[in-house]
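Lecture notes, continued. The same structure-token format from the folding unit now serves as the input rather than the output. Read the line below as a description of shape only.
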């Protein structure tokens, strides 16, 4: 799997990421670092605990990383969740968006893991 194929698998925008970072080596470095970030785990714990402040912080971090890396699908769902949490909403709509974020995150992580395994790292 190439890095471009990884982006296709995670519904991202490879060209946008390349335009931003200007180096496939840099894009690859930060794509692989995504799996080490603890924001998703923090989001899950915070949503389950009803901790609005920490859930917002985690969703906002995920949104920022996805914007920088052009992970389009996860960016969309995490942005929507961030805005609901910013407004203090942890109700049904936020819970539905959280489920969408979980699906998008899993797809993103699976694509990156497959890329890492095929790249030998």
């Amino acid at each position: 799997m190439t890095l471009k194929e990884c982006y296709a698998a995670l519904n991202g925008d490879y060209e946008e990421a390349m335009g931003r970072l200007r180096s496939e080596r840099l894009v690859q470095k930060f794509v692989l670092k995504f799996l080490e970030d603890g924001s998703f785990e923090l989001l899950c714990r915070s949503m389950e605990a009803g901790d609005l402040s920490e859930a917002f912080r985690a969703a906002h971090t995920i949104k920022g990383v996805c914007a920088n890396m052009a992970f389009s699908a996860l960016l969309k769902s995490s942005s929507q969740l961030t805005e609901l949490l910013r407004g203090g909403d942890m109700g049904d709509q936020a819970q539905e968006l959280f489920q969408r974020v979980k699906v998008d995150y899993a797809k993103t992580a699976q694509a990156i893991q497959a890329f890492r395994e095929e790249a030998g790292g």
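Point for the exam: The mean pLDDT is 96.
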